Amino acid sequence: MIKDFQKLLKEKHIDYYIVPTDDDHQSEMVGDYYQVRAYLSGFDGSAGTLLVTPENAYLWTDGRYFIQAAKQLEDSITLMKMRQKGVPTILEFLSEHVEDGDVIGFDGQTMTYQFVNQLEDVLDVDYEIKCIDLVKDFWKDRPERSHEKAYIYDKQYHGMSAGEKIEIIQEYMKENDCQSHIITTLDDIAWTFNLRGNDIPCSPTALAFALITLDKSFLYLQQGTYDLDLVKAYQQENIFMKDYLDIYQDAADLKGRVLLSTNNVNYELVNQIQCEIVDGTNPSQAFKSIKNDVEIKNTKNAHIKDGVAVTKFMYWLKNNFEKINMDEISVSDKLLSFRSQQDLFIEPSFTTICAYQENAALMHYHATKENHSDIHDGLLLIDSGGQYLDGTTDITRTFVLGKVTDKQKYHFTKVLQGFLALQNAHFLYGAIGLSLDILARYPIWADNIDYQCGTGHGVGHFLNVHEGPHGIRPVIRSTENTPLEAGMVVTDEPGVYLEGEYGIRHENELLVVEGVENEYGQFMHFETLTYVPIDLDGIDIDLLSNQERKWLNEYHKEVYNKISPYLTNAEKDWLKEYTKEI
Amino acid sequence: MIKDFQKLLKEKHIDYYIVPTDDDHQSEMVGDYYQVRAYLSGFDGSAGTLLVTPENAYLWTDGRYFIQAAKQLEDSITLMKMRQKGVPTILEFLSEHVEDGDVIGFDGQTMTYQFVNQLEDVLDVDYEIKCIDLVKDFWKDRPERSHEKAYIYDKQYHGMSAGEKIEIIQEYMKENDCQSHIITTLDDIAWTFNLRGNDIPCSPTALAFALITLDKSFLYLQQGTYDLDLVKAYQQENIFMKDYLDIYQDAADLKGRVLLSTNNVNYELVNQIQCEIVDGTNPSQAFKSIKNDVEIKNTKNAHIKDGVAVTKFMYWLKNNFEKINMDEISVSDKLLSFRSQQDLFIEPSFTTICAYQENAALMHYHATKENHSDIHDGLLLIDSGGQYLDGTTDITRTFVLGKVTDKQKYHFTKVLQGFLALQNAHFLYGAIGLSLDILARYPIWADNIDYQCGTGHGVGHFLNVHEGPHGIRPVIRSTENTPLEAGMVVTDEPGVYLEGEYGIRHENELLVVEGVENEYGQFMHFETLTYVPIDLDGIDIDLLSNQERKWLNEYHKEVYNKISPYLTNAEKDWLKEYTKEI
Questions:
Q1: Pair A431, A481: CB distance under 8 Å
Q2: Which of B363, B437, B445 would you mutate first to test chain A, the one with the most A CBs within 10 A?
Q3: Which end of chain B has fewer CB atoms within 10 angstroms, the N or the C?
Q4: Torsion angle of C-alpha atoms A107, A113, A117, A123, degrees rounded to 10
Q5: Are strands A456-458 and A467-472 parallel, antiparallel or unpaired?
Q6: Partner B contacted by A421 (CB < 8 A)
Q7: Which of A115, A96, A100 is nearest to A18 (CA)?
Q8: Nearest residue in B to A434, CA atom
Q9: How far is CA A159 from the centre of its chain?
């Protein structure tokens, strides 16, 4: 395969051809049409960048995929293990190899503008960039670009018309003296236009672009993905349909100043624009992060249903353990079946992480049909979530099965302490994620352990399970220097991951709410959205303070109150025991 | 007084004359020579800005001084209460009143460059600035500018020659392509040149300027403040003496690029400079914040002596309460007498805050001969510190005297919980003050109370008791976005302040040290420098977790071990009781 592709490179006089893993929108997950890297290299993990020269080929991927990539890659492709000592990044590699006169090619529509900028920064030779989709004719049986039905998200679930949303964006545009605004990120488009679809795995979005001007807006959708009713409904809000790929031409025709987030845009689109670009985060980012009352009411409902599904699953798991054969795949499927029974459930909100013992120490482990573990005594970590029409969920529980060691219980409890401290935090308005992060880390940092990832992320409303601009992290990302505002949803998910041993994570979703306002300012705290027991079998009660016990008991009481009405009698009895006071 | 001064304004055709409270160096406290605002207005608090027009006069000061200023101000001066609703800032006031053609005057040497910049930003009329020290001839019996003996700080206390320090500063200058560097802040000069003096209350610094070039340096000191030995010693390190005020002319003659921190410089000096100014924090700021081994060894010793003094005082206080008459002044003097008995003690490191009950709720309360309280049952907060040749100390203890209420004990214990959580924190290298701040605030935020100031500040080494660039605060100041580095000293001082009731603060100094380095990174924690009991009479033991009790017991054990060898038998027995396990 790669040999034939290299012949094509020679014909076209291209010295380096780069194949990232991206769609036109920098989506977190991409559809089959965009799996070019997998097609050319054989490696089908979720992340990787392929670099092909007429003579050689290299694939960069991260630690999650070293083993899988080594197995799957065509022999002639060199595996470049990211972040390993002595392994250059693709930028470093190119800066060492590219010479005067060389031609670097890529499909500009799936290449990020950011990467090309970085390339310009590191290369100090005279090279040429060629935007060309070489795969177009090369990949004969390429799947079509996904073109599932797009639909308008019913107002009962979110409470705000597209017209109202566009109006506040237009206000923002006026304040920044912009006459137009292009949106390329699918969740921003989905929120702004109340548009939903099914073109991206685990995200109910439609492949689309959007252009907002000061008096009307345009939605760029693939023909055949929408009906006349949708066209009419949008027309009433001064929104007009255009063909998906027309955005590239329309971008070229823009005049004045266009607001565009160049952090999340493909190279080709920016390249088309001739007018002045005002670079900045999409205003919809901040707007959609603050959920309104209708969204909050709906998301609370979605979380109850999700809690019922996961609690029922927990009952099944604890009661069938060692009675029937279980493996990471079968258990994962069982959980999905419980979610599927819930009202308004659409699909998982991300690929479930179901990881037994040492597998859970790999933070992004995904069991596959070819490669997964049977489940026996020990710890089983399941990180999963659902897309419901009334909300998106994300929950992690670590389940104790059979015998566990004192050390496992110790770490289970330490993670719980940080989890509870964050969930129960009160703070003055103005606090950012960084201000709170240490609460979750404090107990495990005391043992010189860290979980080396953020503590929490925002969550969309029947949208992406990862959503900015806020987050809870030990360092500030440029976009996360934003106070936690009432109405934001954020996860609380500390963990302990011991290589070769086990992984533990507890995760709830939290809603930021206002508390008392007094002479000191506006106090804020969290309201818990997620209701599923923390497995009492994992807790070393003696390690908990009275305060921590009180927090856990109060939480478990709420779990019982909210979830038990939807359970069978047997499940109810069991839940009573698993939410008892300690 | 002010009437005569207004006549002078008319004569000189000045429409607005501004009198800040500052010296040539923006020192935190200023000497008698610089008390111009107090002389003209009658108000002698530590902070205030006077604005005089030919017809009117206004004094801006903050909440600490509203009562005092109202009493002391000359009748014709309007008190402008800062941060009160409807009261404009001086900048707002000027922007409302200054008209085309008006002349604004001030002494450029005691006016900050920053203020004049802000003035330029807010005034959009055609005004004229006149740098003129109108007080020079007006104030007949003005005290002389302080000119105490300056001396070289013995290397045994700090371990690094001026030559070595200047070399690393010159390296920094070269990296930033600067041919010269003017230093105006007295503590930066003191650290760089190992120069000490006695021109500023509570700070062992000498009035001085410094100029560093790439091959030699100049110290600008007042004539008569140093001897020939000092001149010779400095010559050996390529440092040459100049007269204090010559800096203004030398600044005018500079060529190339000069490194200068315009955040902390007077207007006149910047005005003199004709060459390019490279604006940036003085590199000495960062260097001096990280104490070397010699400084750490010395400062530990100073803290033991200070701990002995404060512990002896505590013994005296608890044993003489209600036996002899006590008031805030007499008790404060007693504490000073204990400190004075310690080896190498020079002076207090700041004006002692000795505040009984509701007085302690005013965060910057200072008892005066005219205005102070007698001490009976209740809480007595004492925030004090010493300048020793081997180090600077800063400690707060809240002492329980006679009967206290349950509410007082509750808050005493809540403050203790935050204090202990911060003191015992372990964190990954990279954490900044903001990352840790919530640890100290968490228990009192839970009750919707805040202490509305930072949690901690850096401390100098036989230098200013407040020192940057780091700190522990709930918001990031531009200079505090710096990781906590091993060798930094920082205070840990949460509190509860209830207006009209009482104030509680516990304060220790902490040294940042490295802990374990492993696959997660470099762990850091604190080593406590301050050893004085936390008054057990104030603690509600039932509120403490086992962990917190353990922390307190361990701390008290160390207090006993380190302090008892220097006590009388009676004091020792008492200390045993006051450091007992709870």
A1: no
A2: B445
A3: C
A4: -10
A5: antiparallel
A6: yes
A7: A115
A8: B435
A9: 24
Question: Is the Cβ–Cβ distance between B349 and B465 less than 8 Å?
Answer: yes
H helices within A222-381, ranges in order?
228-235, 246-252, 267-272, 283-289, 293-320, 328-340
Q: What is the mean pLDDT of residues B154-167?
A: 98
How far does CA B118 lie from the centroid of its chain? 24
Q: Give the per-residue pLDDT at B28.
A: 85
Give the mean pLDDT of A554-563. Answer: 98
Instruction: Give the distance, in angstroms, between the CA of residue B339 and the centroid of all CA atoms in the same chain.
Output: 19
pLDDT value, residue B370: 79
Amino acid at the residue B168: I
Closest by Cβ to A450, choosing from B441, B474, B521: B521
Nearest to A474 among B426, B435, B438 (CB): B435
**Residue B480 above 60 pLDDT?**
no
A474:B520 CB<8 A: no
SS3 A380: strand
CA dist B408 and B379 (Å) reads 8
Instruction: Decide if B439 and A437 are in contact by the 8 Å CB cutoff.
Output: no
Q: Measure the CA angle with vertex B114, ends B108 and B115; round to 5°.
A: 70
Interface with chain B: mutation pick from A435, A451, A547, highest number of B CBs within 10 Å = A435
pLDDT in tens, A246-273: 999 999 999 999 999 998 899 999 999 9
- Is residue A79 helix, strand or coil? strand
Query: By CB neighbour count within 10 A (0-12 exposed, 13-18 middle, 19+ buried), where does B404 fall?
Result: middle
The amino acid occupying position B450 is D
Helices (H), A134-260: 135-138, 162-175, 186-193, 228-235, 246-252
Average pLDDT on B267-277 reads 96
Q: Of A131, A139, A136, A138, nearest to A103 (Cα)?
A: A131
Buried b (16+ CB within 10 A) or exposed e, A178-197: bbbbbbbbbbbbbbbbbbbb
> Would you state the pLDDT for residue B114?
94
Measured from the Cβ of residue B359, the count of other Cβ atoms closer than 10 Å reads: 20
3-state SS of A87-103 is: CCCHHHHHHHHCCCCCE
Mean pLDDT along residues B104-112 = 96
**Does residue B470 carry a pLDDT above 90?**
yes
Reply yes or no: is the peptide bond before residue B469 cis, omega within 30 of 0.
Answer: yes
Which pair of structure tokens corresponds to residue B18?
A: 């501004």
CA-based nearest residue in chain B for residue A440 = B439
Structure tokens at A312: 């029922």
Token duo for residue B288: 């001096």
* Three-state DSSP string of B15-82: CEEEECCCCCCCCCCCCHHHCHHHHHHCCCCCCCEEEECCCCEEEEECHHHHHHHHHHCCCCEEEEEC
Q: Which residue has the tokens 């040492």?
A: A358
Nearest CA-CA distance, residue B436 and chain A, Å:
7
Task: Give residue B477's pLDDT.
Answer: 63
Cα Dmax for chain B: 75
Q: In chain A, whose CA is at the least distance from the CA of B433? A: A435
Residue pLDDT, tens place only, B314-361: 999 999 999 999 999 999 999 999 999 999 999 999 999 999 999 999
Query: How many secondary structure helices (H) and strands (E) does chain A include?
Result: 18, 28
Q: Is A450 on the interface with B (CB under 8 A)?
A: yes
CA distance A76 to chain B (A): 33
Q: Which two tokens stand for residue B26?
A: 């923006």
Give the nearest chain A residue to B526 (CA atoms).
A446
For all residues of chain B together, what is the average pLDDT? 95
Distance in angstroms (rounded) separating the CA atoms of residues B551 and B563: 18
